[in-house]
Amino acid sequence: MKTKSGTNKPWGGRFTEKTAQAAETFSASIHFDKRLYRYDIAGSRVHAKMLAKTGLLSPSELELILKGLSEIESEIENHAFVFRDELEDIHMNIEKALVEKVGQAGEKLHTARSRNDQVALDMRLYLRDVCRNLIDLISDLQKGFVSLARKYLGACMPGYTHLQRAQPVLLSHHLLAYYEMFARDKDRLGDCLKRINVLPLGSGALAGTSLPIDREFVARELGFSRVSANSMDAVSDRDFMVEFLAACSLIQVHLSRFSEELVLWTSQEFNFVEIADRFCTGSSIMPQKKNPDMPELVRGKSGRVVGNLMALLTMLKGLPLTYNRDLQEDKEPVFDTVDTVSQSLAVVVELLSGLSFNRDVLERATEKGFMTATDLAEYLVRKNVPFRQAHAVVGGAVAYCLVNGKELTDLTLPELQEFSDSIAEDVFEVLRIEGSINSRRTQGGTANTSVLQALEKAETDLGI
Ligand code: ARG
Hints:
By secondary structure, this protein is mainly alpha-helical. It has three domains: 20-111, Fumarase/aspartase (N-terminal domain) (Fumarase C, Chain B, domain 1), CATH 1.10.275.10; 116-157 and 170-364, Fumarase C, Chain A, domain 2; 366-462, Fumarase/aspartase (C-terminal domain) (Ribonucleotide Reductase Protein R1, domain 1), CATH 1.10.40.30. It contains 20 helices and six strands. It has helices spanning 21-27, 30-33, 37-53, 59-77, 90-102, 104-107, 115-151, 171-196, 215-222, 231-236, 239-265, 293-317, 331-353, 359-365, 373-382, 387-404, 413-417, 427-431, 433-439, 448-461; strands spanning 156-161, 164-170, 198-199, 226-227, 273-275, 355-357. The strands form three sheets. A two-stranded antiparallel ribbon has the order 1-2. A two-stranded parallel sheet has the order 3-4. Strand 3 (198-199), helix 9 (215-222) and strand 4 form a beta-alpha-beta unit. Helix 3 crosses helix 7, helix 8 runs parallel beside helix 20 and helix 11 runs parallel beside helix 13. The radius of gyration is 31 Å and the shape is elongated. Bound molecules: arginine. Arginine binds next to helix 7. Residues 29, 33, 89, 115-116, 119, 323, 325, 327-328 line the site of arginine.
């Protein structure tokens, strides 16, 4: 049957005019959704097998379709495929190429399928792979933190609150804090995967199909753990992308917090750590400069990752059910986040292997700032002084030190006893940095024994 159409689009039957050039350029998504080609083809292969299974395709038609799809796939891989803007998106580019290759059999591929369930399928297949890759990258990053924690075991440094010296800690304890943050990030991606791994195909445009299909077969073949329960939900649901972008925002924010520490710590003011030259840049005018551009960029890129999450939420906010073309705007934020977060993770993984901490500077930094004041208060508590009174006593001693230019460790026993007669000779052990650190033996604390335990557990969990 021949139809007369004003446009050469696959959907052009009812149209009397060609699409305006401005509309075509404005609405085309092929320049970004072509990255989905492999998933689109994987989905089409299984869809075709299913159609053959239920009798909607003959075995020879199936064979032609599978052959055509494989050819298209290798053409795309070899950059020999010509993507056409007027065919809008990856789905129609591939379908049209198939029809041109295998004729009528190709025209049957879109049976019992809509681009609405097809695009949802492609994005789920794509994000499933992405999540698994990101989880692996984060494990590499955790290994980096763990090996630094192992290498610098025993090194002391100031722990900060409000960026003021607070209490002495082990550098390894500080590094393992990042191990924990990234463990939660992996968990979040794993959780997100559960909701990604649901098959939307078979939902049709929005209401299902009257043709005989086998969704369970398609789900099994594509490795989905279940099929979606409501066709209207399945074609308009983008929750899984929001969750993914939220999980990625946290990853980037965690990377950014670490980057901020590197920027601070590599400054002359801190001088805690050195970044290998291969990750730094110089200045075009100041010959002495060595700048921490990589951590700065990782920190800077958190803006776009968080922005992509906001873009998607805002796009979804006013959408009625079911599919609306607005949903095409889901892809660029997702792709940009995938690229940004994977590159940031990869660069920080390498950066970690090129860090050298200045042990002496770190240790010397613990000597100033009354960092064992809390230890002295807790010492008094053990001597039965109520904590609030102990706090006030130590506050008095600190004020005395400030006036006299001393540290708590400089005070003699008689000087200390001026503040409380509960203080005895054994006080000096708690005023020492190592004594302070090793007294924090609680689970999750900074004592050598606790940190070693945490480190060993992390190594076991990572299979090191
Ligand atoms: N390019 C479209 C998208 O990304 C594919 C689905 C188009 N569906 C439609 N009914 N126009 O959302």
